[in-house]
Amino acid sequence: MDERLVQQFFANDYQDRGMQKWQGYFLSDHTQRLRHSHQALQQSTKWQMIPQMDGVAINRELQLAVEKHQAVTVIWKRAVGLEAEYFRTSGQITGWEAGMIRIGTQMLATELVVALKRKN
After folding, report:
1. Average of pLDDT values for 14-32?
2. Number of structural domains, the chain?
């Protein structure tokens, strides 16, 4: 490319918007993170009333659900830094071995499960 043409373009035609062009990136990333945090807060607030189960109770409920082919609702948490985010997954248990359960196509480590309810 002709160096003179490039210099002419930057001197006459190109207008640098400075920080304006980056503010959109920061804003969308920031709003996405805020939305995600807000949803996690709403879920954790809503699910605080569900009693947390110990590992023995969770394994017992998992075993009964598999034996009776019952769907389950699982509440599990993921630690993000110093905060915990809670999630809910529902469906049929399609696999359970080596500390992992599969509900539909989603894989979860049993150590992340904090509560489980079988659907009758």
Report:
1. 65
2. 1
